[in-house]
Amino acid sequence: IRHQVSLQSSSSPDSCLWRPPPPRLACGIDEIEVSSKARVKSASKSPPPSKWEGPRGCVEQYCIFSNQGFEGGRGIVAVTTNANIQNLKALEKKGSAASTAQPASSSGNRPAYYIAKVPGKGLGLISNTTLHRGDVLMKHTPAVLIHRTFFETIHPATQAPLLKTAISHLPSALRKAFFSQMGHFGDQAHKINDILATNSFQMNLGGHDGHHYGNFPEVSRFNHDCRPNVAFYLGGGGADDLTHTTTVVRDVQPGEELSISYLDSFAPCEERQQRTFEAWGFSCSCSQCALSKGQVKKSDKRLKEIKEIEVKLSDFSGRVTGAILKKLAKLYDEERLDANRAGGLTLIALNYNMLGDEKNAKRYARLAREALVIENGPGAGDVSAMEELERDPRGHFTWRGRVGR
Ligand SMILES: C[S@@+](CC[C@H](N)C(=O)[O-])C[C@H]1O[C@@H](n2cnc3c(N)ncnc32)[C@H](O)[C@@H]1O
């Protein structure tokens, strides 16, 4: 639930948006040369039809495949295996990979955000308007897809020429956006590699070998915050498409920076800082990491408690009280985990129902459903489960499950 990084339901509890680098390669985001003017647009005048071309060049079993007409002329390039290109074609056929370069939430003609220098972070995205929980900011298909094993096991010197050829097959606007991304290792000899390492999301195209890194140049401008105001998901939560969606999770004022979390927001502070340092070259100093020593200790304790309570709530044979459920909801509030509430709210809703508390079961089922849509997408499995619970708590299989019918 917390790490919806795969297009299928294979996300593991320790998966992360941005994977720690294999030797010399990370995955985070880095700089894109995307000014508000230079946003990548799908070709407006009669885009070429979608047509996959390749293999254009290979290293071992990994070959370049490109499609200049993909997603209405936005384009895409993949370095992957023949089997995976078939998966990709199937996903494309399923459709719904609707990229919107324009933020869905803007007032009048004013874009909802702009790119600006942020002290100590390079460039970042700044809100241009008042935004509310649930506002969708971006929807994009990947510019580049790289098979994970290619990226992690082939030597960078061998990767470099293939990647160079691959990127050259992107349509010019997307290629420009690609090269505008930041490579935080500053490795000019392997610039493409550096960009991908700094700015990629894990994606699973399905099958036994579907693990890839996906690069979305527009998304790469989000800086990290352990308590971000934007959540993201890949695919539609069961909808099996390639789209990366970002949604606002709390009210945002004009001028505020928009951020996502690159990592497990439930990890203790020191671990989070170590992770940002190793994978993206900075030690996080977000508002949660910059708390006083005493406050950090309290925050870490709350995070540990959240995990412990959730284990308890997942064990249907254990003893649970309304007080524990209230406590969990309070811990989430205190920790400001606005982008990571879905899992906790789902457990609270189910457990209220198991205690026979219809009113709270309905209330939390609604909150859980809303959070699931924001964090995992409208097609996520638990969305319909929470809808059912909200509609008919007494008819739900969990009704009074802990107290007897
Ligand atoms: C994905 S990029 C984010 C956009 C980037 N700032 C830019 O100029 O394009 C990730 C890189 O941004 C910087 N960054 C992101 N979040 C940061 C933060 N909270 N504090 C300091 N630097 C950050 C780091 O250099 C990191 O490697």
From TrEMBL:
Keywords: Signal
Pfam families assigned to the protein according to its UniProt record, in alphabetical order: SET
Lineage: Eukaryota, Fungi, Dikarya, Ascomycota, Pezizomycotina
CDD domains named in the record: SET_SMYD
Name of the protein in question: SET domain-containing protein
Species: Podospora didyma
Domain SET per the UniProt entry, residue ranges: 111-263
